[in-house]
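We give the entry.
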Amino acid sequence: MIRINLLPHREEKRKSRRQQFILFSALAALGGLLVWFIGHSIIAGYVDGQDEKNAMLKQEIALLDKEISEIKGLREQAEALLSRKQVIESLQTNRTEPVHVFNELARQIPEGLYFKSLKQTGSRINITGYAQSNARVSNLMRNLDASPQLQNAELVEVKAAVLNTRRVSEFNLNVSLERQPVEDAEKFKGKPPVSAGGKPQ
């Protein structure tokens, strides 16, 4: 009977399979390394591109911030100029206000009554004076309320007094000044001044 020893053949096959496994493992590792390198390169490219975009956006934002700051400065300058303009217009409007107030008071004062003192605080005017009777004080208050420049006449006090041996009524009242717009204030410039009693001079 013939006996064949197959051990060397099996050993060679085992050795060949081991070599193939090592080769495939090396190829798989190399393939994985290649895939990782390609993926890393692609991701790095995306990251670099995004970094460039972020840098460009930061630069544009810095420019916009600078422009916004300049616009804010211009707006503040414009508001300051507008505020100055309003102050100048107010001064231009109010510089003739005392003349108009005196003119209007002279126009509204009834006969038999005269003022002793006038004091203005803001838009409030305090008037003291003498009248022949309380009825004339009431008439003055009605005239002041009907005036286009004066309003809200309020009597503070009225009392009997003696002036040059004559009995009179001494009064104290407040009246509010109604500020006139520029175009309305211009209407009073052409009117002639009036004397006490409301008659034009």
